[in-house]
């Protein structure tokens, strides 16, 4: 038995779908919400793809369990229905402060008083969202990395207003669903992982913007020079170029704005979203 028996994932995009799968695959009842029928259909397609990735990583003997986990996830476009019996809500909507605040205002009105809220935000601090939740003492961040079952860290970060008992519950739950909990002792933009990753990706994007080298050359240099399995632009494709654009577009820094424009013009406007669309900096078709 897990700490939370009924979990709702709000936003079933690239990472939201993985979160729903990871939780469901550990025997927890999962509901997943997204904005409309098209978004739900896209999420269902992502889950079918996740099964194939999961089986490729862990072996075909895990296929039946993975398919059963996916089959057990209940989708809905009705937010009140999605959270009516939730013990924990994991929010994974796009990285826009106003959008997240609006979603939490709706969640606050619909979810039971007992429900704990957790954001998967990569860049926003819990304290930026706490007031919108209506329950700051039951709100914190629970951040997953892409390919959850393989890169299985779960960074847990509260605000100064988070109840320590709630923090401990979420740490425990992360371990129960196969993650390695990473408790943070104070708020930090980017947590541990992205505090290291974002400057790395920023340095790579600056090399491209300045015309120093192309993405393939930069990636090859990093792989050969460090023995790492992927270069920065391969990582961009895995994270998703929409997420990379949203983070850059939200920054006040000139370089970040230039990178956001570069991504939009050369990739997003052409439907190149990274691995999820089959093409980004590289082709995966």
Order of strands across the main sheet: 3-2-1-4-5-6-7-8
CATH superfamily of the largest domain: NAD(P)-binding Rossmann-like Domain
**First-last Cα distance:** 41 Å
How much helical structure, as a percent, in the residues?
A: 40-55%
* Domains (count): 2
User: So how many helices?
Assistant: 12
Radius of gyration, CA atoms, in whole angstroms: 19 Å
CATH topology of the largest domain: Rossmann fold
Structural class computed from helices and strand pairing: alpha/beta
Following the backbone from N to C, one meets helices and strands in this order, namely: EHEHHEHEHEHEEHEHHHHH
Percentage of residues in DSSP E strands = 5-15%
Write down the CATH class of the largest domain: Alpha Beta
The CATH architecture assignment of the largest domain turns out to be 3-Layer(aba) Sandwich
> For the residues shown, what is the average pLDDT?
96
Oligomer: single chain
Main beta-sheet annotation: 8 strands, mixed
Description of the molecule:
The chain has 285 residues and is of the alpha/beta class. It has helices spanning 14-24, 37-58, 63-72, 79-83, 97-110, 126-133, 164-176, 193-209, 215-226, 232-239, 241-249, 254-266; strands spanning 6-10, 29-33, 74-76, 88-91, 116-119, 139-144, 153-158, 180-183. It has an 8-stranded mixed beta sheet with strand order 3-2-1-4-5-6-7-8, with helices on both faces. Helix 2 (37-58) packs antiparallel against helix 3 and helix 8 crosses helix 10. The protein starts with 5 loop residues before the first strand and ends in a 19-residue tail after the last helix. The relative contact order is 0.10. The model has no long low-confidence stretch (mean pLDDT 96).
């Amino acid at each position: 038995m897990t700490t939370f028996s009924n979990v709702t994932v709000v936003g079933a995009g690239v990472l939201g779908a993985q979160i729903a799968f990871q939780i469901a695959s550990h025997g927890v009842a999962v509901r997943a919400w997204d904005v409309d029928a098209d978004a739900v259909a896209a999420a269902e397609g992502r889950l079918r793809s996740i099964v194939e990735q999961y089986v490729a990583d862990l072996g075909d003997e895990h296929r039946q369990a993975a398919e059963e986990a996916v089959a057990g996830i209940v989708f809905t476009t009705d937010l009140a229905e999605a959270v009516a019996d939730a013990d924990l809500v994991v929010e994974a909507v796009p990285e826009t402060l106003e959008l997240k605040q609006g979603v939490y205002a709706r969640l606050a009105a619909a979810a039971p008083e007992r429900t704990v809220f957790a954001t998967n935000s990569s860049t926003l601090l819990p304290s930026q969202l706490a007031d919108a939740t209506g329950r700051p003492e039951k709100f914190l961040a629970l951040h997953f990395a892409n390919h959850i079952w393989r890169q299985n860290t779960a960074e847990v970060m509260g605000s100064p207003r988070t109840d320590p008992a709630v923090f401990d519950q979420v740490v425990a739950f992360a371990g129960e669903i196969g993650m390695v909990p990473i408790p943070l002792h104070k708020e930090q933009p980017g947590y541990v992982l992205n505090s290291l990753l974002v400057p790395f990706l920023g340095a790579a994007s600056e090399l491209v913007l300045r015309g120093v080298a192309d993405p393939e050359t930069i990636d090859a240099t990093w792989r050969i020079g460090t023995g790492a399995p992927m270069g920065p632009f391969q990582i961009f494709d895995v994270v998703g170029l929409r997420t990379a654009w949203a983070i850059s577009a939200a920054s006040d820094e000139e370089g970040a704005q230039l990178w956001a424009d570069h991504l939009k013009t050369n990739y997003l406007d052409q439907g190149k979203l990274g691995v999820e669309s089959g093409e980004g900096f590289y082709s995966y078709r």
